[in-house]
Specification:
The chain has about 290 residues and is an alpha/beta fold. It has helices spanning about 35-50, 65-75, 90-105, 125-135, 190-195, 205-210, 245-250, 265-280, and strands at about 1-5, 10, 15-20, 25, 30, 55-60, 80, 110-115, 135-145, 150-160, 165-170, 175, 200-205. α2 packs antiparallel against α5 (about 190-195) and α3 (about 90-105) packs across α4 (about 125-135).
C-alpha cells in the first residue's frame, strides 16, 4: 500500500500579526499545516495495518523543507521537495499541476490531502490533482477502511448539518481529509531520530520537466486585509418606558426576564399540577 501525502508549510496562526499600515504579516513562524499532520498520521496508521510506504511531498521555497522534516520525524518513509524559483508565485491551480506531474511518476494507491489549508483555505489542490490524474475524489473524509483484497476503500465523509455519508471507491483515489479523521500521532524517540537522518529529495522545474511559462495562474491575490470586527448586538430601548425602567433595562444588558411558574409541592401534588398545566396548554390531550 503506497500512500502519497501532500503536505504544506503554513504560518502559525497563533503567532502571526497583521500590520494595518503596511498591510503585511509580521511575526511569522512556519509550521506543518495541522490538517496535513492529520493526513500523515492516517497514512502511517494505514501503513501499519496494510504495509507499504508513505511518501510526503510539498511545493514551496527552501524553508518548506522544515515541514517535510516534521513528516519524516512522524514516521514517513520518503520526502520530496518541489523547489524552484519559478514556483514561488504560483497559485493553487498551478500547484495542483506541478504536484500531479510529480505524483504521476510515483506508484501510489492512495493520495491524501488536507480538506482546507490553514492559510488560504480554498480546498482546490486535492480536487485539482484528482482531475489531472483522472482519479476518483472523496472529500471531507472522517474515516478510511482499506480492503486490499478487492482494491477498494469504504470511506465516511462529513456533510452539512452533522450528516454522514458512506461511500465505496476503487483505488487508487484522492481523498481530502477532515480534522477529526484521526488523533495526533506521537512518534517514538527512535522514529524521531531516524527521521532527522533521512535525506529529502529535492526536485526543480528542469528535472521535473515542467515549464512554468506554459501554465497561467487561474487566480491572483488582489489585497490582504484584516477581518472586520463583529459588532455586538445592542438592544433598542423603548421610548415609552419610564426613566427607572430604562435604567433597569440598561443595567440588565437588555435581557428581559421571562415569567415562569415554579411548582414547590409534594411529588404527587406537583405532578398533578404539571399534568394539568400540559392539558390546559394543549401540549397533551386527555384520552377519550
Amino acid at each position: 500500500m503506497n500512500i502519497v501525502v501532500c503536505a504544506k508549510q503554513v504560518a502559525d496562526s497563533t503567532m502571526v500579526r497583521f500590520d494595518i499600515r503596511t498591510k503585511s504579516l509580521d511575526n511569522l513562524h512556519y509550521i506543518l499545516d495541522p490538517i496535513d499532520e492529520v493526513s500523515v498520521s492516517e497514512a502511517i496508521r494505514i501503513r501499519a495495518k496494510n504495509g507499504g510506504q508513505v511518501t510526503a511531498i510539498t511545493l514551496g521555497p527552501p524553508r518548506a523543507e522544515a515541514a517535510l522534516r516534521t513528516c519524516l520525524t512522524l514516521g514517513v518513509d520518503r520526502a520530496i521537495h518541489l523547489c524552484d524559483e519559478s514556483f514561488d508565485s504560483v497559485d493553487a491551480h498551478v500547484t495542483a499541476q506541478v504536484l500531479a506531474q510529480r505524483i504521476s511518476s510515483t506508484e501510489c494507491d492512495l493520495i491524501l490531502c488536507g480538506n482546507r489549508s490553514m492559510d488560504q483555505g480554498n480546498g482546490f489542490v486535492g480536487a485539482g490533482i484528482a482531475a489531472l490524474l483522472n482519479m476518483p475524489l472523496v472529500s471531507s473524509v472522517t474515516r478510511i477502511d482499506i480492503f486490499t483484497d478487492t482494491g477498494t476503500a469504504v470511506v465516511h465523509r462529513r456533510l452539512r448539518g452533522g450528516d454522514r455519508e458512506i461511500v465505496e471507491t476503487p483505488l487508487p483515489a484522492v481523498m481530502t481529509v477532515d480534522s477529526v479523521l484521526t488523533p495526533p500521532l506521537y512518534p517514538r524517540l527512535r522514529t524521531v531520530l531516524a527521521g532527522l537522518k533521512k535525506e529529502i529529495e529535492r526536485v526543480d522545474a528542469r528535472s521535473l520537466g515542467f515549464d512554468p511559462a506554459s501554465c497561467e495562474a487561474a487566480s491572483q491575490v488582489v489585497d490582504i486585509s484584516q477581518p472586520k470586527p463583529r459588532l455586538k448586538r445592542t438592544a433598542a430601548i423603548d421610548s415609552s418606558l419610564s426613566a427607572t425602567q430604562r435604567m433597569h433595562f440598561l443595567m440588565s444588558g437588555g435581557m428581559q426576564q421571562k415569567k415562569s411558574n415554579i411548582v414547590q409541592k409534594e411529588p404527587a401534588a406537583a405532578a398533578a399540577e404539571i399534568i394539568q398545566f400540559l392539558f390546559e396548554k394543549g401540549i397533551i390531550s386527555r384520552r377519550p
